[in-house]
Amino acid sequence: MLIDINAYVGHWPFQQLKHNTCAGLLERMNKFGVDISVISNLNGIFYKNTQSANEELMQEIRSNKKFHDRFIPFAVINPIYAGWKDDLDTSVKKMGFKGVRIYPKYHDFDIVDPACIELVKRVRDHGLPVAFNFRMVDSRQRSWMDIDYIVGTPKPEWNMKSILPIIKAVPDAKFMILNFCNNAALNEEEMALVKKPGVIIDNSGRAITNMADFINNYGKDKFAFGTHAPILDYLTAQLRIESMRPNEADEATKELLRSGNAKKFLGI
After folding, report:
1. Domains of the chain and any CATH numbers
2. Which of 41, 54, 137, 197 would bridge 75 by S-S if both were Cys, CB 3.0 to 4.6 A apart?
3. What's the mean per-residue pLDDT of the chain?
4. What per-residue confidence (pLDDT) applies to 16?
5. Can you tell me the distance from the alpha carbon of 175 to that of 167, in angstroms, rounded to the nearest whole number?
6. 249 CB-near residues (< 8 Å, 6+ apart)
7. How many CB atoms lie within 10 A of CB 199?
8. pTM listed for this prediction
9. What is the pLDDT of residues 175-188, one digit of tens each?
């Protein structure tokens, strides 16, 4: 079984995407043997009112019974936009979203802004996870109209240390760390934060060049299959699991990466 914890529908303003609807995504999932995908709406990154994107996504999921069993929807919430608390409650209690995705760089707030911390605490109180992306696209290939997050700028791409302040601020929340890139070196105290039970990392990011090394360093329970589709492809994340030799990962470990860790984390 394969569970993809990092996928999208919607549009990216700076790049043409294919298979970026529920129907298109499901077609690709069937082709590559993916059973369930955690999805959110890319449009929520760019709409002033992110709730419009959440409504779009839920309307699309409800349009076909097949989608209900194959997709786990996450809402996009901007904690510095007026009315976000109502949007969160509506998304979770009335619309049935199973988690939240937050984009500090695109919505222009610090990861430990008091509003962000409050949002994470509220998501925690709902018993749901909150997801953070290292990045959406490689900053070296970004459009000149995209946000300025290249290395050497005041707001460069994140590395693993960049995520730690919010984990430290709300240590009992559940965190998904997605599209892992850049420096992964951590000291003992920092590694303890990442190794807490409420943290899971997908394997879509370019930093994961050797899955076996990351399992040895972080633990086999820390990682789950994720594609970052349709921006990235389905095969890269799969190959990172399936290409490991028996002395690097036995079949039980591979099954944890394919779906076991995601099932436990998401409660499915």
Report:
1. 3-266 (3.20.20.140)
2. 54
3. 93
4. 93
5. 8
6. 211, 212, 215, 220, 241, 257
7. 21
8. 0.95
9. 999 998 877 778 89
